[in-house]
Structures are given as structure tokens and as C-alpha cells.
Amino acid sequence: MSKGYRIALLLLFLLLLAFLIFYAIVALDLFGQKKNKAILNAPANATLSAPTVSFIDPKRGNPRGTVMLVEFGDYLCGYCKEMEGALNAALRAHPNLRLVWKDLPNKTLHPESLTGALAARCALRQGKFWEYHDALFEQADTLAATSYPQIADKLGLNVGKFTACLTNKEESAIIERNIEEATALGVDGTPYFFLQGLRISGSVSPEEFAALLNQVDPV
Question: Which of 15, 70, 106, 108 is deepest in the core (most CB within 10 A)?
């Protein structure tokens, strides 16, 4: 085999390798960034097509709004935190929007996520769910066991009742029910949204999110 032929084979191999690396980064996203996707149909493994909403689910926005947005979220999920700005903007722009929160803590990836979910539910008992919800996202990078009563105290909650609720895990059954529902719906991660029959999996840009909302609730 001539030297020139070996060089040509090497160049061909390098070009093929470069193409495969490019494909992996762009198409397969092997570097761990979660793909944004909006889908209409439930996945094959889903046994439920839509989430159920009841009085136990915290709601924000218009309590009688006919446009309902259901979020399955995790307080330690970076993508969920990124979506907070887009959600707040959506609530301001769409007076007919009702946002519903459902807990989906990933206890394997985020050990504090379950405690955070329990703490917010304990705050709900004293009428301060959304204030606690917002504080958890603000302090997500520094959450520890001492954080929860401190947040409760700052929000003016009865810290004794709050601590008893959290220590005894009195809201755990509701959170487990949310997790079971997410599994039945085929939810594949957080954040995951249900918007008038549309499923939105992953963090989307504020512009993309606004466009999806405008499809179902033109402003």
C-alpha cells in the first residue's frame, strides 16, 4: 500500500469521525442538554392521557381560568428553575391562565428534592404555598436541612406546626400520588407541562413558550 493511499484513507477516516461527532452533538445531544419538545400524543407507555386536577393541587393565576397549564416539577431541577421567569410572564400576559403545580421530585438525582416538596406542601397548610415555592427555587443551590424552618420563619409561618408537618412527612401521600400519576402519564422528566392537550417536555425559551400559549389562548 502506497504512502499516498494510506494518507487518503486516513483523511477519509478523519472526515467520517468528524461527521459522527457533529451528529452526536447536534442530533443525539450526548453532552447532556435536555431536548426541548412539544408533542401532541401520549407516549406508548402511558396509561393516562391527561392529568387530574383537584382541590389538593396548588393553583396560581386565574382560579376560574379556562386555559389550564399543569406543571410536574422538582425544586432542585435546574430546568424547572429556568422556566420560572417564562411562567410568571405567561401569567401576566394571559389573564385567563390557571397554573397547576404537581410534585415530581427526583430523589436519585436531587436528594433534597423530596424534602423541598414536603416543605412546600406544609407551607400550603398555612396558605403560603407559592411564597414557599418561589423561595425554594431562589435558594435551590444552597438548600439544606436548616433551610426549611428558616424559610418558614421568614414567611411568617407558625414554625412549630410547620416543623411538625415536615418531620412527620404528613404530606408524603399526596406527593407519592403525584409521582404515580406522572408515571401513568408517561412523564419522562422535569419540567413537564400539559397545556390544553399539548405536552411540553423540557425547558423551552420564553419566546417558544409564549408562542405555544398563544396557540391556545391568543392575546
Answer: 70
19 dihedral zone (left: phi>0; alpha: psi -120 to 50; beta):
alpha
Cα 153 to chain centroid distance, Å, stands at: 26
Cβ-Cβ contacts under 8 Å for 159 (sequence gap 6 or more): 149, 152, 153
Nearest CA to 186 among 37, 75, 41, 69? 41
Q: Is the pTM of this model over 0.70?
A: yes
Burial environment of residue 33 by CB neighbours within 10 A (0 to 12, 13 to 18, 19 or more): exposed
